[in-house]
């Protein structure tokens, strides 16, 4: 029995994204070829062009997938914390520390910005700002966070965490850079905490 067209399209896209992710995560964007993606997925170049336009379009799809996985992980970390403030800090710190993971480091923080430009202009960033804004509003309502403009705080925290991750990804000593970045970032966040 033939699969429905929508299911076949979804499978083709998933295969190409998986093949792209494998290639981008191991050899990097510059050295990954169209043939790597199509051969790895058992598909033609035509399928790649049809679904993603080009190699850059495939990278964007891979980044969306990794971003969604990172968000799910961060939500779990936040939910497991003993209170909302500690969850907020743990989530922000975990995002920075993810820059130590080879696949995330290469795709999200090295190749992504090099190919797609400034991280603050990515489509996924607006979702991050919105999520941070919701958390900040809750923390302010709880009386835990200083009375600060919500959007300004969300953008500043997002910018600081993104730049910390980029710093780690490009560092010659990423573990040491991560320790320094996390320590500094925790100090910045604690400055927003109003309770003892």
From TrEMBL:
InterPro entries: Homeodomain-like_sf, HTH-type_TetR-like_transc_reg, HTH_TetR, Rv0078-like_C, Tet_transcr_reg_TetR-rel_C_sf
Keyword DNA-binding among UniProt keywords: yes
Annotation: DNA-binding region: 33-52
Keywords for the protein's UniProt record, in alphabetical order: DNA-binding
Keyword DNA-binding: yes
Signal peptide residue numbers: none
Protein name: TetR family transcriptional regulator
Pfam families assigned: TetR_C_41, TetR_N
Stretches assigned to the HTH tetR-type domain: 10-70
A GO term for molecular function: transcription cis-regulatory region binding
